[in-house]
From TrEMBL:
Keywords: Hydrolase
SUPFAM superfamilies referenced in this protein's UniProt entry, alphabetically: alpha/beta-Hydrolases (SSF53474)
Source domain of life: Bacteria
Protein name listed in UniProt: Alpha/beta hydrolase
Pfam annotation, one family: Abhydrolase_6
Residue intervals of the AB hydrolase-1 domain: 39-287
GO molecular function (one): hydrolase activity
Length: 301
């Protein structure tokens, strides 16, 4: 693992670290603090910077790694304007490469689609982790009318839904605002008169505009992953499922589906919060993570 740069954060020095995945692609993360390791996987339509405040609080006691998720690495995109998705398995390879570089056991925290990547990493290499904390993962689930991920209905495993195809078509036409408006409506369950203006606004902000194809890629990767509850049922690690009191019903359904199959699970409700506690109340979320980490690392060798 190679240190790339140092800079000052809120609580301690932040170091940029890099290593290499099995396929030769670079793996990058921001690291701060000392002690047992917490690895954070950020949610969709975000970068690792979205967890800066949470990490700064945790770094007073732990070594905190914020991975730059492969799906949101513009330098690894072959078509950054229209999207070029990597698979969830390729994202997991980046997680495991970083864990190997820094050493185990690691407490893995994942939020939204980052939570799905975290679940897959835990399932792929359980011995690499002391435990996991998952904040409202994005999952394909079965229902009486077929497979779905939030508001998008999917024909079968490995096939993407009609809504996602429309988003991809909008990107191809050079309409990122339309694409992310549709995505917001599907994922968050917002009505069109709210989601569409929000999408148009996001497309006007350069930092968000460049992430829109990444978010569509992320949704496609989640849909192609398919139903994975059986794999999660074999995880013999302590896992805490975190959810917001005010989160959409679809998010709570996904949390419940995972919690029902995990052998060693705890559920924590974030009172007064929704899907974005890391932004609205980073202190509260950091306290929840720290409490879980303390218990997990006391059990770990």
């Amino acid at each position: 693992m190679v240190p790339m740069e140092n800079r000052k954060g809120n609580a301690s020095e932040i170091t940029r670290l890099s290593t290499t995945a099995a396929d030769g692609t670079s793996v990058c993360a921001d690291v701060e603090g000392e002690g047992r390791i917490i690895l954070i996987l950020h949610p969709g339509m975000n970068t690792s910077k979205s967890y800066t405040q949470v990490a700064a609080r945790l770094a007073r006691r732990y070594r905190v790694i914020r991975l730059h998720r492969r799906q949101y690495r513009l330098d690894l995109k072959t078509a950054p304007l229209i999207g070029s998705p990597c698979t969830v398995a390729e994202e997991v390879d980046h997680v495991l490469a970083m864990v190997k570089a820094v050493g185990a056991p690691v407490l893995l925290f994942g939020h939204s689609s980052g939570g799905t990547v975290a679940l897959e990493a835990l399932a792929a290499s359980p011995s690499s982790f002391a435990g996991g904390m998952i904040y409202e993962p994005a999952l394909v689930l079965k229902s009486t009318d077929g497979l779905h991920l939030s508001g998008d209905r999917i024909e079968s495993n490995g096939e993407v839904g009609e809504e996602l195809l429309r988003m991809r078509q909008a990107l191809m036409k050079g309409q990122p605002g339309t694409a992310i408006g549709m995505c917001t409506r599907v994922i968050a369950g917002l009505p069109s008169f709210v989601a569409n203006p929000a999408g148009a606004l996001a497309a006007l902000i350069p930092a968000y505009r460049q992430l829109i194809p990444c978010q569509i890629d992320d949704l496609e990767a989640m849909e192609r992953l398919g139903v994975r509850l059986d794999a999660y049922s074999k995880l013999n690690l302590p896992v805490t499922m975190v959810y917001g009191e005010r989160s959409p019903d679809e998010n709570l359904e996904m949390v419940a589906a995972v919690a029902e199959v995990l052998p060693r699970v705890e559920r924590i409700e974030l009172r007064g919060q929704g899907h974005t506690c890391h932004v609205r109340d980073p202190k509260k979320l950091a306290e929840v993570i720290e409490t879980f980490a303390k218990g997990v690392f006391e059990e770990a060798p």
